[in-house]
Specification:
single chain, alpha+beta, Barwin-like endoglucanases, 2 domains, six-stranded mixed barrel
Length: about 290
């Protein structure tokens, strides 16, 4: 390598190294809780991934030899880290209803991250909040005769989710299917990935009850844990919880488990927005960035 090119290479490497260090410092100082969680739950080198992503998108990358950038390309990139980081920069410190500016910024992050259209308001209807504490719900009866012993698809599901039991009553829309024999996969998934939201607190609900009930029935929502980046496409399957509980919504055992949200003192906030999916193309269940 000619001496001049060698000096340029060393200079660019030093520039990159400084930016790497600055990015590492910023990520740790502003986002320590996310990295603590990821360190406990992942073997991936998070900071290396972040630096690798920065390198691949940096204007100086075109001037750095491919042999130098190759190692950055092989680093695994956990996109949840960047989702958590982006949300942390736009969410308020306290758990409360988002203002319009905050809501727009959060929606922009979610749209960009998941590639789907989410809304705080749809068809002129919005919930009382899109950022709140989620609580544990029980399994709901999917069809007449469904019970805790026949509820699970696999033995593994039974071992993990049996302890939550069945709700004593039906969901807001009663059964998900007319019978076990007629139940299709979508109906089964609606119970598996359901949330309960405070439909009764939506502005205009009491004045337009029939319209609102029809709108909320199995309405798809994106539910995101902003502290670990995990997200689920769920449906509104029930109404609640009551205001006095201090919670804003509830999640099925499967939703809570995937999001790693727990009741009691360990409960935490989630974001939940309507999904604009008129052609019903977005499947229910976990969704990755």
């Amino acid at each position: 390598m000619p001496k001049k090119n060698s000096r340029q290479y060393e200079h660019l490497r030093n520039v990159w190294a400084k930016k790497h260090k600055d990015l590492q410092t910023e990520l740790f100082s502003k986002h320590k809780d996310a990295f603590d969680w990821l360190e406990a739950n992942s073997k991936q080198v998070v900071v290396g991934s972040a630096a690798g992503l920065y390198l691949l998108t940096s204007p100086i990358v075109a001037q750095i030899p491919q042999s130098f950038t190759a190692s950055a390309q092989t680093q695994p990139i956990d996109k949840k880290v960047f989702l958590v980081y982006d949300l942390k920069n736009v969410l308020p410190n306290e758990i409360r209803q988002l203002n319009i500016d905050e809501e727009e910024k959060v929606i922009e992050v979610l749209d960009r991250t998941f590639g789907i259209s989410v809304k705080g308001e749809l068809s002129g209807i919005r919930l009382n909040t899109q950022y709140g504490l989620i609580g544990q719900e029980q399994h709901l009866a999917r069809f007449p005769g469904d019970n805790i012993y026949s509820h699970f698809d696999t033995p593994d599901d039974s071992q993990e989710y049996f302890k939550y039991g069945m709700a004593p009553g039906l969901g807001a829309w009663r059964y998900f299917a007319d019978s076990k024999e007629s139940m299709n996969e979508e109906e089964n998934s609606r119970e598996k990935y359901y949330i309960a939201v405070q439909t009764f607190l939506a502005q205009g609900f009491n004045e337009n009850r029939a319209r609102y009930v029809e709108f909320f029935k199995y309405r798809k929502m994106l539910v995101v844990n902003p502290q670990n980046g995990k997200a689920v496409v769920a449906v509104i399957g029930d109404a609640g919880p009551a205001e006095w509980t201090g919670k804003h919504l509830g999640g099925s055992p499967e939703v809570m488990s995937y999001l790693e949200r727990y009741d009691g003192r360990a409960r935490g906030p989630v974001l939940y927005f309507f999904i604009d999916d008129p052609e019903n193309k977005i499947p229910l269940g976990p969704i990755n960035p």
